[in-house]
């Protein structure tokens, strides 16, 4: 009896379940990241913008205000989902784009107007997790198939 015969019955279902979990999680993350594309727009006014260190990179920190139905809101979110840290150059470029006293368009959640973002694009949210999930499912399926080939009837 080889190690494949011993390990495949245990690891193949685990790989399939883990792969499926990652694909479902990636799909949900993608849906959350794309939600602002369907939110309403409002004119905003940037009050402050700066680059701050974030882990191994940098992040643009932007404070803006906008008005919805006569109520003023202050926002700080650049995008719907946390993004990987930017390089210093990328963060500087975004801070210049959303410099103080500029008037960008923000997208706000009509169900909760206090939630707004400057960037409504998904930027590949969940793609890596979906690819890893698909790879794990494929590996699990190969293990199951190989088990069927080596297991005596």
Short description:
The protein is α+β, with helices and mostly antiparallel strands. The chain is built from three helices and five strands. The protein has helices at residues 3-34, 88-97, 127-150, and strands at residues 40-54, 57-68, 71-75, 105-109, 112-117.
Our count of helices gives 3
**Total domain modules:** 2
Shape: elongated
Query: What is the CATH topology classification name of the largest domain?
Result: OB fold (Dihydrolipoamide Acetyltransferase, E2P)
CATH architecture of the largest domain: Beta Barrel
Which structural class do the helices and strands define?
alpha+beta
Ranges with pLDDT <50 over ≥5 residues? none
What share of residues are in beta strands?
25-35%
CATH class of the largest domain: Mainly Beta
Report on this model:
The protein is α+β, with helices and mostly antiparallel strands. It folds into two domains: 3-32 and 128-150; 40-119, OB fold (Dihydrolipoamide Acetyltransferase, E2P). Helices cover 43% and strands 28% of the residues. The chain has three helices and five strands, in the order αβββαββα. The protein has helices at 3-34, 88-97, 127-150; strands spanning 40-54, 57-68, 71-75, 105-109, 112-117. A five-stranded antiparallel beta sheet has the order 3-2-1-4-5. Helix 1 packs antiparallel against helix 3 (127-150). The longest helix is centred in the first third of the chain and has 32 residues, at 3-34. The mean pLDDT is 82.
